[in-house]
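User: I'm writing a short report section on ligand binding and want a predicted complex to refer to. Could you take this sequence and pyridoxal-5'-phosphate and write out the structure as tokens? A short remark afterwards would be nice.
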Amino acid sequence: MHIPFLDLGSVHSEMAEELDQAWRDVVLDSAFISGAYVERFESQWAQYCGSDHAVSVGNGTDALYLALVALGIGAGDEVVVPTNTFIATAEAVVAAGATPVFVDVDPATLLLTGDSLTTGITPRTAAVIPVHLYGQMVDMDTIGRIADRSGIAVIEDAAQAHGATWRGRPAGSFGTAACFSFYPGKNLGAFGDGGAVVTSDGELADRVRMLSNHGRSLDSHHHHPIVGTNSRLDGLQAAILSVKLKRLDIWNAARRRAAELYLRELSDLAVEPVPVAPAAKSVYHLFVISLDHRDRVQRNLTEMGIGTGIHYPTACHQQGAFTTDREPPSLPVAERAAGRILSLPLHPLLSETDVKNVAQALADAIENEAELGKPAGDLRSEEGSETR
Ligand SMILES: *Cc1c(COP(=O)(O)O)cnc(C)c1O
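Assistant: Sure. The structure tokens for the complex follow:
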């Protein structure tokens, strides 16, 4: 048995001709940096997100960094970040010169909550970054209300939530700005790095565009009124993304079907799948469960040919990068979850048989673990079982 965690090759081979053609067009036009393919994808992406502007950038981390800088957030400012996220969320805050303030997450969804946001707000707070982790959106009504009351910006980290909705509204349409990654493994992935900042604030979009393009003014090639950087999406990637975007809803629906099947198949096992709130529609970037003896069960699955992942084994506030100059705060929900979560194989072409095989393998792995965990006396008393 071999069920990989992710299978990009099969997804791409299904549409190989269209992708090859898109790539050839860009080469023929030599439209490598900015130009028509990038502009087309930007307008498609803004529309998909229910927002007015999408500014494409080099990657998702830069999208967060540039959104923060464009909002004037930097030295002396604090930004509230859920500790259960990919390190990039916090990294971008530091790159902008601000300080990430880590807060705990909901014990069920493992996402930022209104209560945890409130614990992180101080007079220096300039923004919060709700992270729509695993494909599920944060409760944006509650976050928006608290942010409004506190006068802070909301920057959605939607790197795992392409097409996810909260009360029917898509990720990217709630925050002051929303940041996406098109890293190959995301629900919409390029053939390399890519990212975008989405916003309905035209001035903010212009500032992100200038910052991402050497601080260059939007109407004059040799005029640089501000200091920026170089973080742009390639024409080649934009063309690939436009082709793949046509299938995003189909792929997300396939992920959702696989996830629903997992929920049925796993219902009798001693595992807790991360639940989805009634107002949220998840695009299941990841299918995450919590269980006992996670590391040993994972090793067992690897031996059986099942690919899995952990997102993430160390909460950000406990990473060396953030513990050098201070004692990490105690954020017990995320700390406990980090030792128990496991991401099962999930991609648009995962078949019903694959899901059933993963569920069976997981049942076997948990049973093996239970056998090993028993006192030796119990083990010997079982008929036919050998002591180790
Ligand atoms: C992938 C990811 C990022 C960073 O995106 P890159 O394109 O890899 O820089 C940021 N936040 C989250 C939650 C992610 O999953």
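A remark for your report: The mean pLDDT is 94. The pocket of pyridoxal-5'-phosphate is lined by residues 59-61, 85-86, 88-89, 131, 157, 159-160, 181, 183, 193, 195 (CB under 6 Å).
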